[in-house]
Prior knowledge:
The complex is a heterotetramer, with two copies of chain A and two copies of chain C. By secondary structure, chain A is α+β, with helices and mostly antiparallel strands. Chain A has two domains: 5-54 and 157-291, no CATH class; 59-150, Alpha-Beta Plaits (2-Layer Sandwich), CATH 3.30.70. Chain A is 73% helix and 8% strand. Chain A has eleven helices and four strands. Chain A has helices at residues 5-18, 20-56, 70-82, 94-104, 107-110, 132-139, 153-193, 196-204, 209-248, 253-257, 261-291; strands at 59-64, 86-92, 121-126, 145-149. In chain A, helix 1 (5-18) crosses helix 9 (209-248) and helix 2 packs parallel to helix 9. Chain A is rod-shaped and about 100 Å long. Helix content of chain C is 32%, strand content 25%. In chain C, the strands form two sheets. Chain C has a six-stranded mixed sheet with strand order 6-7-8-3-9-10, sandwiched between helices. Chain C has a four-stranded antiparallel sheet with strand order 2-1-4-5, with helices on one face. The two termini of chain C are 32 Å apart. In chain C, 51% of the residues are buried. Chains in contact: A-B, A-D, B-C, C-D. Chains A and B meet through helix 2, strand 1, helix 6, strand 4 and helix 7 of A and helix 2, strand 1, helix 6, strand 4 and helix 7 of B. The structure holds adenosine-5'-triphosphate (2 copies) and magnesium ion (2 copies).
Amino acid sequence: MAANVQYVARETASNLWRNRLMTVAAVLTVAVSLSLVGAAMLLKQGVAHATTQWQHGVNVDVFLKAGVPVAQEKVIDQDLLQLPYVHSCTYRSQAYDYNEAKHLLTPDESQSLSASTTPASLRCVLNDPGQAQAVAQQFSGRPGVASVTYPSQAVHNMQQVTRILQWVFLIVAVILLLSASVLILNTIRLAIFARRREVSVMKLVGATNWFIRVPFMFEGLLQGLSGAVIAALSVIGLHLVLNTLGDSRTSNVFTQMRMPIGEVLATSAVVVVIGLVVGTVGSAFAIRRFLET
Amino acid sequence: MAANVQYVARETASNLWRNRLMTVAAVLTVAVSLSLVGAAMLLKQGVAHATTQWQHGVNVDVFLKAGVPVAQEKVIDQDLLQLPYVHSCTYRSQAYDYNEAKHLLTPDESQSLSASTTPASLRCVLNDPGQAQAVAQQFSGRPGVASVTYPSQAVHNMQQVTRILQWVFLIVAVILLLSASVLILNTIRLAIFARRREVSVMKLVGATNWFIRVPFMFEGLLQGLSGAVIAALSVIGLHLVLNTLGDSRTSNVFTQMRMPIGEVLATSAVVVVIGLVVGTVGSAFAIRRFLET
Amino acid sequence: MICLENVSKTYQTGTVALRDLSLDIEKGEFVFLVGSTGSGKTTVIRLLLREELPDGGRIWVAGHEVALLSQWRVPYLRRNIGCVFQDYRLLPNKSVFENVAFVLEVIGRPKHVIASQVPQVLDLVGLGRKRDSLPGQLSGGEQQRVGIARAFVNRPLILLADEPTGNLDPKTSLGIVRLLDRINRTGTTVVVATHDASIVDMMRRRVIELDEGTMVRDQARGVYGYGT
Amino acid sequence: MICLENVSKTYQTGTVALRDLSLDIEKGEFVFLVGSTGSGKTTVIRLLLREELPDGGRIWVAGHEVALLSQWRVPYLRRNIGCVFQDYRLLPNKSVFENVAFVLEVIGRPKHVIASQVPQVLDLVGLGRKRDSLPGQLSGGEQQRVGIARAFVNRPLILLADEPTGNLDPKTSLGIVRLLDRINRTGTTVVVATHDASIVDMMRRRVIELDEGTMVRDQARGVYGYGT
Ligand SMILES: Nc1ncnc2c1ncn2[C@@H]1O[C@H](COP(=O)(O)OP(=O)(O)OP(=O)(O)O)[C@@H](O)[C@H]1O
Ligand SMILES: Nc1ncnc2c1ncn2[C@@H]1O[C@H](COP(=O)(O)OP(=O)(O)OP(=O)(O)O)[C@@H](O)[C@H]1O
Ligand SMILES: [Mg+2]
Ligand SMILES: [Mg+2]
């Protein structure tokens, strides 16, 4: 560790500059591959958020018979709320349901509807979408209740899909991380290989291994850092793009995937740390074989 | 193009061997990055398949009142089938529905159920899951029909999710392809950079640009090919893994994503072609600036 | 065969390597280019090979004005010129045999010609036994001799030799110079940049002396220097 | 100071570079190592620097047996040895100044020492004006002189010079040899492998001649050769 700070700083700076092509190549490799890693991590978290959103979106609609007295409606509402897995219920008037139906259906289909034939409903949000069937079983057939609808197969699929999606993105992130490491190590190895004669000359004039290694490691550190910062900025950029998409149209998947900026910054930080570590350790590792003898 | 075949073959082979480190680096880069591209392409297709499967899974359940005469059941069935967007309907007895309910619910919940209180139902598969609400509107309240249930918000989400998933994987594939190209070009550039003196010596003894370029391009071609073949094998491997997962548990997402081997091979072929092209063109491109003057 | 007319060359660093240099070398001449280190000998050779372009003046080689030559014709010019480089410039990944054979492959000589001619030339420079070594496995003198073999294996019109005996012992040097002389007698124009006083003095050929990029002497049957 | 005992060295290619070589060089001696090209001079220097290990025999340098030296102590051995390499071995990405300064940085000399000592040494070899050039921007002789400056900038115990005047004109060569002589007079052991008959003959120092890896002559006040 005989190398003093000033020597290392000067050496690193001039090496980075004089081997521009390699610097650019290494930074590019880190930036591209860590961007992919970061994006995968972001998407994984996005899906986690969206899942919560989607689960809140699984409603049990309790359609009320036309002309049910308000008192009975209240009782049904209260009974529903007593169930532990019901989160909240909203009363929707006949007019509201009619409007919604008109909105969801094509003009052709909604022609046959009218506000008076559309039933009023209690739309209940569940804590656990798996319990939808239980609610339906209990309330369909109760006095005042016309029917209870809930998504059955779809709920099942949805749960599976989001669970698996999270896994997929996690696995993708891990695979990309491994790939990124391989690619970055590869690039560093090539760059150092191109300078192997230089290393051997340094050894011949009496430089210790650490004296040679430290500037190379700092080079790797800075390359990894620069690449990782670019990658982190891409991740934040991706987040902003998703956010904008989420704003422009209401209630699409992007809105559901929106997540607090804190998590995005955490992801970016992870990416930067990975870049630093892979760059530094990679350089130290790559130079090893040229330092032997 | 003065280079004759034998010269090119010998030159390429010996260069690949004598620059082993670079050969390995380039092949590795191509293999890793094209595997990712291939995997993304495969997943996109998988989702496309799964979507079809999921859409078939969106059912409208028409629950029948207990004690409805068989004739009335038939009429309801036929009326359902006359709707253009209903694909098929299956009659499910009270016993069947009871069993299914018991299966889906926890023992606690199913205690209150009995075969006689569970309604029989017609489970209809739709050609277009977007029409579920229309079916519900038309049949709920009909004589003999207790209630009609269908997934509403969930259907909406599901359609959005799968549509967007396909886009996501397509975009991911394109981004990965661009990244792969950048990384491969990068690696080739570094490898050729390390041999720039060699190129300049060849020029000084009177070699034409093509004479120098052709062996380099063949090197790039072979490196791209080897890497791409590894990538293609990984894609096929991934397919087999997904298939096995799809077999072991019934009816999970992996089963739904299963696709014919033909498509997998097509994907692999695309990957190989990409590798070939990027390797060859990349080499030709990378050597360009060392051939000037 | 070789003609420089008011040639000047300044490198990007600002070093003036040649100043207004004019010289004329006829076909079949044997010329020594001498001068202290840094006087511009290698620069002259680089310009003749079109490795560098002059800043001013005109240069003719083998009937072509090199600066006007289009890119794609440069290789064909270079095939007429054999060159021994001061720093050898061997292909590090090719064996001795392949290094020499490469020049013949470049001009499209058939395989059997290569197979017969290369060993012959290697024997001539005394490297018959090292034909499969890589340049990194040779001593300095051996590398230099590979460079010499490569330079004249395709019987070029012009042979440029930059310090061809710098790493050779006097006996081997003498052998190489005799070889250059023999090549010269077959009609090849030979230009040798050298510091080796003994061979210049022995050969007694035309000597051109450079000093800081200008010609200070052009002597028909000259010696290495006045002051040594 | 330097002692070889029955040293032999065969390269991986099967070339026998040294055969049973024994020699002894005292502290403060000035020795010329001569021999035809490929006779093993560079190999001797490589062994002394521990760039290669001998296959047989033992080598002592500055009191250490090099083959027994542990890896981490090799750099400290090398700091006692200044070496001028036949192929210069300059750091291509460093300027002339930085190349020379590097040796001092390696041994941890403070900045002001470097700032005063390096220009002094560069002036001594006549490169004061080229201090900011990169090696690729120098003529052959200039690169060689950078190598020489680097070899003795840290006043080593032993100075090994492999063909230090191969690319220098006779006048500059003479200056370099005088410099080596001056360094030798300060107590430094100097070993010069060379083909340059004139400097050997002029200096009249101990001459060791190799032929195919064996010592054929060890003469106290020798000349370059009998036969030239
Ligand atoms: N690529 C270059 N960039 C900048 N300057 C250069 C370059 N090549 C040579 N020079 C400078 O040009 C001058 C002439 O160099 P040249 O190589 O022609 O000398 P030379 O006569 O061959 O010397 P030597 O006998 O040492 O080989 C020198 O001062 C040298 O430093
Ligand atoms: N790295 C190597 N691998 C294999 N053989 C080598 C290697 N280096 C040198 N040799 C061989 O060993 C022998 C001695 O080489 P060495 O470099 O010691 O000669 P030298 O006396 O320095 O010659 P010169 O005067 O030409 O520099 C030569 O035949 C050479 O071909
Ligand atoms: Mg020169
Ligand atoms: Mg030698």
